[in-house]
Amino acid sequence: MRSTRPRPPLVAVVLLVALAPLTGCLSARGADGSATDTVNAALGTDPSTFDPALGSASDDYTADRLLYDTLTRRDNEGLAAGLATDWEAVSAAEFVFTIRPGATCSDGTPVSPTVVADSLTRFADPDTGSPGRTLALGRGEATFTPDDEAGTVTVELTENWADLPIGLSLPQTGIVCPAGLADPEGLAAGTVEGAFSGPYTLARATPAVSYEFALREEYDAWPDFAEPLTGTAPATLVFTPYADPSTRATQLLSGVLDVASFPDENIGRFENNDSFSVDMVHALSTYLLFNEREGSVFADAPELRRAVAQALDPEAFTQVVTNGRGQVLRSVGSSALPCANTDTSLLPGHDPEAAGEVLDGVTIRFVGTIGVDQGNEYAAEVLRNAGADIELRNLDNAQWSEITSGGGGDWDLTIQADFNVVGSLPSSLLRVMGPPTEDGGRSKTGADNEEGYGALLEAMSTTEQDARCQALRRAQESFLQRVDAAPLAGLAEASVAADGVSIRALGDYIDPATIRIVG
Amino acid sequence: MTTITAPSAAPVPGAPASRTGRAGAGPWLAFARGRLIGLAAVFLVLLVLSFLIVQLIPGDPAVAIAGPDATAEDIAAIRGTLGLDRPILTQFLDYAGGVLTGDLGDSFQYRQPVETIIGNRLPFTAVLALHGIVVVLLVAVPVGMAVAIATRGGRRRWLDTAFGALTGFLDSVPGYIMATFLVVLFASGVGVLPLLPPAYSPGDPNLSLILPVTALAVGPACTIARVVRRETAVVLGHDYMRTARGWRLRPGTLHLKYALPNLLTTTLTLSGLILSGMLGGALIIENVFALPGLGSGIIKAILDRDYPVIQGMVLVIGMIAALVHLVVDVLLALVDSRNLGGAHGD
């Protein structure tokens, strides 16, 4: 969209003349600064697959969101209509979705209830191996029954999961058209032209170099956001992977990019800069998470867990890891999540003296992900100051995930960095209660918290908002009092768009399908 | 550093001689046979090492692929799909068999052939490295020679001191600082040079290459310039050069015809090492300038535990380095046939 900024002409001419022989010819890309219908945006890394069901990282979700529509969409306040214009909860285990009439696949095939049901049936199939299955549908089995005449799909679950409408806003639940279902390998490679139900098709994919998405001319199934989108959807979206946020920021500042997001101090390069709009989200939550399995020092040791939590000041931690841009948490998810705890009296509180009395001489095996290495180092030093003997290992995500999800007793403590892609509290609560990872669940603590998990299940068995919130508050109260985990900081991520381009952050979710050319 | 015995390595004025003409075909055949055996040995070592290296990397590729929300069953299924549950020997035989038939396997992350992944990245690194080495040679050799000539016999000591200080300083600046400095000064700051545009094709010559090539070339250019300056000073002190000067040969003829050939052995050898290092991946430069080359690719592959891509890149980068050294050896042999025996400067 934007092009390189005007250069001082005399110096430029001299340099061009002097250096042209070296480079062969000169670049004219966007030299006149004219508006185009192309927007250049950044990815953190390459999407690992274009099969939405198999997406497992934020860059996968970015591509999926553009290529495949979901039944519901995240909005600022709750959900917006996506491919489903309406939905009704018969119970917490049965939902009826009315499919948007007139929606089509990229090969012209109508997106009928049967198409939707077939796609979701594949998503729900354990053999598909979608990492989003339990987040969207819970732990039970799901049956999808289409009624093409009525234009509806009925979803029946064997276990209550009141979050189903929210779950079906996950990019992984994106509707794959019949052509894609018939060619799973092509679907994963993004080469099936008729697979897409979303606003864009994948025009070109060159791993490590760029991904080009082309707007479908006939597409008319834009979601019904409470605040309608303004501007024009770009005809072409070019996403380039930039692993280093500083490089990404430089590219954006120099006009090479139009849109990018930043999780670190690079945010400061755009604050108070009138040429850019900045939207802040806090979808990544951090909290102390204790391993309570046999072999860990924290097994059956609530007072020790409390002492660790008391040693750390969440406000200081937030300052350290986010330079003050983050959010001090009161639960395992963002305060913006519905029913999130706001009661500070449930928290252990910052009491270094009390912590020191318990922690003195205790050896703690602390494993951390390099994603929050500053926070790990800070927490380790604080605990050392409190008298604990800290063995810190800062690992990359793969190693860290393998150890903390492995179900073993070979680690004691971690700072969990949880990307709440669903936008619902239960997905984060399941990290600290319920079935442990070694049993196919999500809980990394291995804690046997029947009371808390019971409250969580109760919340998932009602579609009545007040009752659901009451149950979720009991679940949070339970894990906070047991100190299975201790909230720290919601990390800030800034979505930055240059003048002339906009992108919407909806309920702590940066939606790439809302990129628009404005002005 | 000097490895020459000047009178026999350089043409003596008035006594034309062909250094390679007398060698005949025999030494070249032996040279070719030796180098081919060497290449084959390098290939086999790389084949085994590239496989073993990935086994030593801690972390499970299936976990990296599955993501944070995967269950133990999902991870086990992925391990089976990737073939990671097979015995190590079986995996190695499959890998070696594939490589020998030109198949480097499929990327765990991208689900595309490794050849495609490398093919996407190699042109960026190649363009950067080849431009870089050309700039290095075009700058370093003339500058190094000019300084040596200007300071011959202890003249202009200030120039020698300034040259040493400046090249020493520039050579000591870390790549990421040099690259960032250039970006801040010329791209973000004054704005006279652009950064690479999105979806840049490495086949398109572009002014945006100036900054990354400069950042890549500054350090090596200083290194080679210092070496050339020293080598030139030594050559200029040889008797045959004094004789040539006594014959009042023109400076151009004197230095280009009689001094330069004696610098080439060291310069080319060092340039070959630098070029293979550049082709092996200039990670910092690629990162700062958003070039998706091999350097950033191999780091990403390691973080992703993408075994086939790591293996493929190690193999390709290793073979490229071996081929660069082979080309340098051939050039050295063409310059001085005594190098056919591998004992430079004999």
Automatic annotation (TrEMBL), chain A:
Assigned keywords, A-Z: Signal
UniProt-listed Pfam families: SBP_bac_5
Domain named Solute-binding protein family: residues: 81-407
Superkingdom: Bacteria
Signal peptide feature range: 1-30
Keyword check for Zinc: no
Gene3D superfamilies assigned: Dipeptide-binding Protein, Domain 3, Periplasmic binding protein-like II
InterPro entries associated with the record: SBP_5, SBP_5_dom
CDD domains given in the database record: PBP2_NikA_DppA_OppA_like (cd00995)
Identification of the protein by name: ABC transporter substrate-binding protein
Source species: Streptomyces millisiae
Lineage summary: Bacteria, Bacillati, Actinomycetota, Actinomycetes, Kitasatosporales
Automatic annotation (TrEMBL), chain B:
SUPFAM superfamilies in alphabetical order: MetI-like
Keywords, in A-Z order: Cell membrane, Membrane, Transmembrane, Transmembrane helix, Transport
Membrane topology term: Multi-pass membrane protein
Compartment annotation: Cell membrane
Domain annotation ABC transmembrane type-1: ranges: 122-332
Bias type Low complexity, positions: 1-18
Signal peptide residues on this chain, from the entry's feature table: none
Listed name of the protein: ABC transporter permease
Organism whose genome encodes this protein: Streptomyces millisiae
